[in-house]
Amino acid sequence: IGKNIFYEESVESTQKIAHQLAYENVPEGTVVIAEEQISGRGRMDRKWHSPKYTGIWMSLILRPQIPLTKAPQLTLLTAVAVVQAIEEMTGLIPEIKWPNDILINGKKVTGILTELHAEADRIHSTIIGIGMNVNQKQEDFPNELQTIATSLFIEKGEVITRANLIKHIFANIEKLYFLYLDEGFFPIKLLWESYAISIGKQIRARTLTTTIEGKALGITDEGVLQLEDQHGKIHSIYSADIEL
Ligand code: BTN
Description:
With 244 residues, the chain is an alpha+beta fold. The protein is 27% helix and 32% strand. A hairpin with a 2-residue loop joins strand 6 and strand 7. Helix 2 packs across helix 4 and helix 2 crosses helix 5. The two termini are 34 Å apart. It binds biotin. The site of biotin has 22 residues, from helix 1, strand 3, strand 6 and strand 7.
């Protein structure tokens, strides 16, 4: 991971560049990193605030030989790798909110966006976007993010060297990815669950079309959230926003 890096000063979105590179069959593990994104994207068509020099904005190309239905597992794997990198670098203990939010003290410090290219029902490549708030000060966040976003600097009170953090993230993704290819999702799932906040709790899941309330039972082997409503009916949630 990260042996082949495209480093850019300013881009629209590293996802967009990584999508183009994926078509050009660059080696697996190729990463696009930018100092700034003009139109960074989040999940569900949201904008991702990506100001210059303060965060880590990068997209990673992986090509696992797995069926499409297993793609969410890579998001969870990446979340574990990022959480461990933050722990190693800062001693802070982040939590994961399904599927991809990494929180510290209840505020979002990192988001992960996994997109893919498919060939029939197989994965051609996955583009894993990681957006991490590293050295922003409180006042650097726009109004609408003030109460929901944080950075490692705000939480730790120290400037964090982004290059070191990136090295930790690469090393951790690589380690977990090889574990995943060798032993499957189970060891990753255990690690993920040990960092997850929503499991066992009463939550509200807002999907694009509906809202379901219930107890989060856990994730399936495919990385799909299982929610039990008040009637005991179990819902499989593939994509949603979770409120605790
Ligand atoms: C989310 O929580 O909604 C996911 C945010 C993902 C942001 C990253 S930053 C690098 C990559 N490029 C983008 O435009 N988005 C992802």
